[in-house]
């Protein structure tokens, strides 16, 4: 988004008839789609091979290898999404001191959301309750509470 020249070239390429008006994202997702189609193809091959034949053994080995590849791909996609979330969050959150590195290889965001903090003022004769929004960010290794800038 920050590189105007890249955006222009990308728009020109995506509008080219050779690309069939498909976006860059659709080209990036094609290998994953092919892998899942291969899995379906191997499942059909396994259904049609005779039990305990050499073809079944080879198809089973190929299927197991493909399952492992799909699992690895999904894990890597999840890891990249988690890293992207951490980068986005680190750009939004300002720490008073930079002693807490938010982005880490092992850290991932588990849950986040807005909560309402209740402040009781018991200095006055009447109980006065004020509310303010705070945000909870639960990571796999720590809990971070933040509040919006005033």
From TrEMBL:
Species: Prunella himalayana
Record Gene3D superfamilies: Dbl homology (DH) domain, Pleckstrin-homology domain (PH domain)/Phosphotyrosine-binding domain (PTB)
Protein name: ARHG5 factor
A Pfam family annotated for this UniProt entry: RhoGEF
Domain of life: Eukaryota
GO molecular function annotation: guanyl-nucleotide exchange factor activity
InterPro entries with a match to the protein in the record: DBL_dom_sf, DH_dom, Ephexin-like, GDS_CDC24_CS, PH-like_dom_sf
Entry's Gene Ontology cellular component terms: cytoplasm; nucleus
DH domain mapped to chain residues: 1-76
A Gene Ontology BP annotation from the UniProt entry: intracellular signal transduction
